[in-house]
Amino acid sequence: MLTIDSDYDRFVETHEPHYFHAQARGFALIRRIERHLKRANSYAGQYYGYTDHETGDFVITGECDEEYEAEWNRASELARIAARSNAYRIIRAQGRDDEAAMLILEAHALVAQQG
């Protein structure tokens, strides 16, 4: 039985037998990053609170900073993985300049500096 190791940690070339699998995983990884960024953005500027029934005012009891940070950190972790895989090449080939692409490109630059 043939087992294929994860193709997240390297670039898979077009002549390799599992190139299409690596490309599919790259697209899926990009979608996951986009989902985490979307969730992070939904928490930005959000507050916990309740409506005081006596005054009718909205009472803020906290901010959604922890949720925002958790989603942002997860997107950043995935971007570091994407920077070393076919997801990076997909982003470059598409010429994207959205938030997910910028996160991946920045992570790739950091990986390149570290060697």
Provide an overview of this structure:
With 115 residues, this protein is mainly alpha-helical. It has one domain. 59% of the residues lie in helices and 10% in strands. It contains four helices and two strands; from the N terminus they run αββααα. It has helices at 19-43, 65-82, 86-94, 99-114, and strands at 47-51, 58-63. A two-stranded antiparallel ribbon has the order 1-2. A hairpin with a 6-residue loop joins β1 (47-51) and β2 (58-63). The longest helix is centred in the first third of the chain and has 25 residues, at 19-43. The protein is elongated and about 70 Å long. The protein starts with 18 loop residues before the first helix and ends with a helix.
Record keyword descriptors for this entry:
115 residues; mainly alpha; two-stranded antiparallel sheet; 10% strand
Number of strands: 2
Class by helix and strand content? mainly alpha
Shape: elongated
Largest sheet, in brief, is: 2 strands, antiparallel
Q: Largest beta sheet: what is the strand line-up?
A: 1-2
Number of domains: 1
Question: What is the gist of this entry?
Answer:
With 115 residues, the protein is mainly alpha-helical. Helix content is 59%, strand content 10%. A hairpin with a 6-residue loop joins strand 1 (47-51) and strand 2 (58-63).
List the helices and strands and how they pair.
Elements: H1 19-43, E1 47-51, E2 58-63, H2 65-82, H3 86-94, H4 99-114
Antiparallel strand pairs: 1-2
